[in-house]
Amino acid sequence: MTTWRLAVDADTCIGSGMCAGIAPALFTLVDGVAAPVVTQVPPDDAAVDAAESCPVEAITIRDTADDHLVAPEL
């Protein structure tokens, strides 16, 4: 089964909350910085939407099988 790893670069995150608004089951704000609620998920369009909406591209999603970048698209 394919799984994705969610990560947020806390140094880059500006705490806009876009990710938590788009995918509240996957992202939350902790002390003004985004954080994944869970670190591994099955492929999920909401996760991609959240990563793509981050204004500073602080969110990355990688496939756990081969570590390739799923989102954001570069």
From TrEMBL:
Domain 4Fe-4S ferredoxin-type: 4-32
Pfam families (UniProt xref): Fer4_13
Keywords linked to the UniProt accession: 3Fe-4S, Electron transport, Iron, Iron-sulfur, Metal-binding, Transport
Top-level taxon of origin: Bacteria
One MF term in the entry's GO annotations: electron transfer activity
TM region(s), chain numbering: none
The keyword Nuclease is assigned to this record: no
Cofactors required: [3Fe-4S] cluster
Gene3D superfamilies for this protein: 3.30.70.20
Described purpose of this protein according to its UniProt entry: Ferredoxins are iron-sulfur proteins that transfer electrons in a wide variety of metabolic reactions.
Stated name of the protein: Ferredoxin
